[in-house]
Amino acid sequence: MLTQTPLPQLARRLEDFIRDPDFCCVGAKSALAKGQLHIHVARDIRSAWDDLAIHAQLVSLAQRFTLKPTLYQSFAVVFEEPRMLTEAAFEEAVWQRIQSLADKDAWRGHEYDSTVDADPASPHFSLSFGGQAFFVVGLHPRASRAARRFEAPAMVFNLHAQFEMLREQGRYEKLRRSILDRDFQLTGSANPMLARHGETSEARQYSGRVVDNDWQCPFEPAHRDDPDAS
Fold first, then answer.
1. What pLDDT, in 10s, does the model give residues 50-79?
2. Do 190 and 184 meet the contact criterion of CB atoms below 8 Å apart?
3. Is residue 229 situated within a structural domain?
4. What is the pTM of this model?
5. DSSP β-bridge partners for residue 158
């Protein structure tokens, strides 16, 4: 008889973090409850060591969603180290991983999702893997927002099309308001970085660090002939 492989400790800890009543994102709670939150434990957020495996799982999720669009699906990567990066250092590492993954996606010939913009300065920007747009939520121990404060660095990838499905069903604003209210109750202040897609570039929200109007996103749209995309 087949038995289920036990989750690594860090993956179980992330599940516990999401189940906690204080955790704000009800979408992640739903994904976990439905068995649709997939977690990959990687080595070091500053290293490309696991990027091929991470990219393969992102493409797999994109392909499954393309064949059967289903709400509340997420893919989380939890990194074993380092545990005490500053917010600025964590942000830098997040964008290094994003750039590496995007380069691999382009090199493998995946088309950028035409419903979003590849320019990080655009208010319609989003990432794209396997032809589907993704939004990223960064978590780490030294995050200034309590809702983003997990014991290890993590990146949670959410399919952008799910937000559009919720809008079409008239459920998006209620979900968004619930997340904002829970975040306010946890922290005691409104998150200054949250905005709707189309109002300002979502790139400003990925790491969780509060950035000013002069902040420049380090991401560059990848090209298939990029020699570094391997």
1. 999 999 999 999 999 999 998 889 999 999
2. yes
3. no
4. 0.88
5. 74, 135
